[in-house]
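Wed. Picked up where I left off yesterday with Capsular polysaccharide biosynthesis protein. The coffee machine is broken again, so keeping this brief.
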Amino acid sequence: MPSQSARLLLLCPPFLREPSEFYQTVKKLSVLTAIALASLLNGCMWAPGQHMSSNSLVRGDSADNSQVELIPITPKLLAMNRAGAQAAAISPALLAYQPEPYVIGAGDTLYITVWDHPELTSPAGPQQQTLANGRLVRSDGTLFYPYVGSIKVAGMTIEDLRQAISSKLAAYVEKPQVDVSVIGYGSQRVLLQGAFVKTDPQPITAVPLTLSQVLGTATINTEQANLSGLVLTRDGHDYHLDLDALNGDKSLAQDIYLKPGDRLFLPYNDRQEAYVMGEVMRPMAISFKTADLTLTQALGRAGGLNPTTAKGNAVYVIRGMEDLEQAPAKVFQLDAQSPAAFALADQFMVKPGDVVFVGPAGVTRWNRLLTQLLPLSGLISNAASANYNLGH
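Structure written out below (tokens, as returned):
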């Protein structure tokens, strides 16, 4: 029956069964452990997990410092940001536009009344619906009317057409009393695309059409729409509108009139995201519905800073990484070690594409390093115990 020492030797891995190889292995493991511990104690910034050092950003130790600009979040910075936001107001050209009288076009349906002459007013019979007695403006912009003949009506206002028909009928009807109304609008429309529930084109009518009316009829998809990114295209020019800001600023959407040919595009928010990473409770991507997402809200949606692992003065907002060759990325730093810092965070606006990163505390990096070293130390301990048993 084999001795206990022999049984222990059989349990060892093949590379540890020879005493000389065993001692060499223990020696190598000890050297690796000593190197790792010495590196940490000498101030090396390596440790498991993600972290960022503001000192390294300033010194430029770990990256090209020309590609990063570190900016502390201070009351002065917030005041400058507010001034820039107020300067980006709505275009005066949109507010200055006033609708002109309705102009008849191809596709419109007109109802022409000649008082005391029902044969001219309702040729299909008075018992028919109004639409059955309407007169469609043909694709070439003309329509036919008794005693008047074919007349070019496209481009006329309602008053222009009323006077033209009255003048023609005067040769056949004494003092004709003529009235013209549009009962079907088909020539002038506003086009809609994007995150609307109903994207059918909306007609421009004789009653001026406002932006708020169009949005109310189309119905915004509030779950998928980016309310801060509405684009109104008019005469080849794009006007960018923040619907949330418009509705909160004296309902300016009611003061914006639309004109024929306008196009409204409301983008989806699936590409408008900010990313919260690092030592937070729930790292996540946050979709934008409005433009007023604050740093406090972003951290709050992620569950806040991890109270056991986060470093209070290592809250960063990384912005402007699209083209580092043209301009350096901006890294805004918040020192969140005091409650007063969250007053600043509540006024700092996060933008789409930003990365909010919370770094780990020093003790967190130390604990993570020890966690990875524990399997190594256990292997050394087991090897030493096996050596002791073999010798005794």
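Quick read: The longest helix spans residues 362-391.
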